[in-house]
Amino acid sequence: MINNIYEGANQGINEIKLKALLTEHEKRNINPLIRTLMPPSEIGSITVVDQIVLLSLVRLASSRRIIEIGTYLGYSTALLAMNSSAKIFSIDLPKVEKSQKSFDEQLVRSDGNYNDDFLRSEQNNRGEIYLDYLIFEERGRISFVKSDSTLINFQKEFEYADFVFIDGGHESSIVEKDTLNARSIVTNGVIVWHDFGSKIHNDVSSFLLEEKDRKIFHVLGSLCAFEIIGELNISLES
Questions:
Q1: pTM of the model
Q2: What pLDDT sits at residue 4?
Q3: Cα–Cα distance measured from residue 196 to residue 214, given in angstroms and rounded to the nearest whole number
Q4: Within a 10 A sphere around the Cβ of 23, how many other Cβ atoms?
Q5: Which of 40, 44, 51, 108 is 20 to 30 A from 130, alpha carbon to alpha carbon?
Q6: How far apart are CA 64 and CA 108, in angstroms?
Q7: Gap between the Cα atoms of 135 and 35, Å rounded
Q8: CA dihedral 164, 31, 129, 72 (to 10 degrees)
Q9: What pLDDT shows up at residue 8?
């Protein structure tokens, strides 16, 4: 059993099953109803398992203030808004003139840097298309921050957060900076990294595997790893 002070957890990566989060969800009698959209077919979006990991953690942390690094097309942004009452800040790069560049799909699926270029182009050209499905109240809780996340003073810009979803640039230096920024404002909450175990974005895994002095959890079958910060009462059965 891993309790709120992580008794029994190892430093470094701890592999857990999705059932651990679902069991804790059920133990608390949290409303099991969720709202979602059909899983997106776009390259770079999140899987159904990733969605359940995010929603479980948001609800277990009773999140009221969420920072998302990497808006992309707004699917996870919409998911978080539909299933919480939190204020959400979503960060992505400023818009530039639309690009007509075409991308090789095989390279997009096999080369991490090329994939990131593709994702930036898609976000810039198409925008946050999934927010069109939100109701007015949900959309009103979302603020977009158009900036390089590594250049933002998180303490000054956001003050605090109880949930941070890191899914922006995948280079090691960016992941490290986004992580430092997240930890600077989360004193009692959860930080989630996407693309842990990705076959093309290896720097996310490499960075977290080096975090040997932290307790990081990876949900098997997902691309999500997370860290519980503070004294949240989240118990996980391995």
A1: 0.93
A2: 41
A3: 15
A4: 14
A5: 108
A6: 35
A7: 12
A8: 20
A9: 56
Tokens 């953690």 locate to 57
The structure tokens listed for 132 are 């069109």
Percentage of the chain modeled with pLDDT above 90 = 80
Q: What is the pLDDT of residues 96-145, one digit of tens each?
A: 888 888 999 999 999 999 999 999 999 999 999 999 999 999 999 999 99
